[in-house]
Amino acid sequence: MHSPESENILIVIPAEAVRQQVSDVLQISGFETEVVSDAAEAVAQAQSTPPALIILDYETQSLHPSEVEEILASDLDTQEIPLLWIVDEELYQIHLLGAQHPERDYLLSPFRPEELMLKVHHYLPNHAGNRHFALASSPVITNVSIPSHYYDAVTQLPNQTLFHQMLIEDVQTTPEELLVGVLVVDLDRFRTINDALGHDKGDLLLRAISQRLINCVGSQERVFHLGKDEFAVLLPDLIQEEDAAKVAADINQEVKQMIPFQGHELYITVSIGISLYPTDTREIKKLLRCAETAMYQAKEQGRNTYAFYSSFIRNRAYERLNLESALHKALKQDEFRLYYQPKIDLRSRRVTGMEALLRWYHQDFGWVSPTQFIPLAEETDLILAIGEWVLRRACEQNLAWQAAGHDPLCVTVNVSGQQFKRTDMVRLVAKVLEETGLNPQHLQLELTESVLMKNVSNTVVKLGELKKQGVSIAVDDFGTGYSSLAYLKRFKLDILKIDQSFVRDIEHNPDDAAIVSAIVSMAHSLGMEVVAEGVEKFAQLDFLMQNRCDMIQGYYFSKPLPPDEFIALAAQDLGSYFEAAAEAVEAEAP
């Protein structure tokens, strides 16, 4: 072999301008180069005088890349020569070259000179030509000649741009049977320290942390500063996931040691997320996101620890299986409950109705959020049986209250998209009303705007048949979907519910106020009543009263209540409550 000083690079690029550009960059950096325009000529040249590296254009060659590789591999003098293929980025993406030939190293065109030099540095790390691109010998990088956009200004560590390039290179060069590990290292509660000490001292602390990370990893080229208080570590050629765990544990142990810092004794901990290629994903772009997801899981586990993405996913899958299994038994074991949120009539100032809301209490899980189990029930078709139970139980409870001497109230039951689409709702409602004996006038079915707009012609028919039975129909979340006035008229709805997103800032946002006022006027012109959801303040209530809204529901009057508490509230006269709230607001006015 030639000595490092005499090692040269063979450039094989048909386009003269590109060939000259590559040659100039390498020569300026101290490399000797030879240039040819054709692959066949390059092979002959390499066999005659083996170069240290061959840089080839992927296209427009007399020999296919595979042929070049086969010829060079068959010759003892050339089989160890590394090949760097320059390929158009679009061609690379279209033909999935990185996936089809992970053993090849590609430089995507167009490229910047520093990108070329980083590739060359990988193959010829000790060559004198790398003196302009070599990292400083000190543990923390202090003098880097690679353009600054590849390095973080605070820590002088490689930044996220260089991280992605190195990750691609690691994935392409790591043998299939081995793993590439990505560690995302996030400082716990760094913002508090930064605010206390000041940002300048916070920057010095980041440099100290950088030093400790480098000590653990053993290479300053494998530690990256992604930004703010987040670092990354790249670990190629791992045999097993425990190898990544050992590095993470070392980092946790090293970083948490006391840092003597300008008269202070600082204690820093880090949360680490780990993702592995190809175990977690074969998509390079997702590896960092997977590691970040795992990092947040580590924080939830108490900080100062590490978590694998695969373990996080397995845990979630395990929890989902447990929840699904429990959900299948919930009906038989009588674990569901109905809570009722009052609807207040703004004219009579009394409770005239309620919305039945499903709740689930499990002996092991405790109260399970509807946002967890309702989507799961819809995915597994359990929503059909659960929906029928809710309808029947709400009707039975309403009738029981009437039998106990309470004034008749109208109970609203939500109908899911699956129920409305897949069950014979008309027959089911008729059956439940007949078996419970509830007057149809005291039952209201509520559907979301998006459910109504699916298969409009079928929806019109179903709604018409339901209304013939005497039940009323409400549309929920109005204003968040895409229904038109023409459809609202065809549906012949009774109640229009204004979504809480419009009510939330109604006293401050003129647009929301105008929308709500317009919805109320439009609904009244179509013969519908209006219910406003999410009313939490008297100012919202006052606006709705001034704009002739018919009913409201929300935490201003009551959260959803168990049956006994609800019926006690329903028996109250709320008029005095309206007056007291109004007087309090007037007293606070300037």
What does this structure look like?
This protein has 590 residues and is an alpha/beta fold. Among the domains are: 1-134, Response regulator (Rossmann fold); 149-322, Alpha-Beta Plaits, CATH 3.30.70.270. The protein has 24 helices and 21 strands. Strands 13-14-16-17-18-19-20-21 form an eight-stranded mixed barrel, surrounded by four helices. It has a five-stranded parallel beta sheet with strand order 2-1-3-4-5. Strand 11, helix 11 (284-300) and strand 12 (306-308) form a beta-alpha-beta unit. Helix 8 crosses helix 9 (199-217), helix 9 (199-217) crosses helix 10 and helix 13 crosses helix 14. Residues 1-5 and 128-147 have low confidence and may be disordered.
- Please, what is the oligomeric state? single chain
The fraction of residues in strands falls at 15-25%
The main pleated sheet reads as:
8 strands, mixed, barrel
- Calculate Rg over CA atoms: 35 Å
Cross-sheet strand order for the largest sheet: 13-14-16-17-18-19-20-21
CATH superfamily placement of the domain at 149-322: Reverse transcriptase/Diguanylate cyclase domain
Q: What is the fold named in CATH at topology level of the domain at 149-322?
A: Alpha-Beta Plaits
Return the structural class: alpha/beta
What is the number of E strands?
Answer: 21
Summary?
The protein has 24 helices and 21 strands.
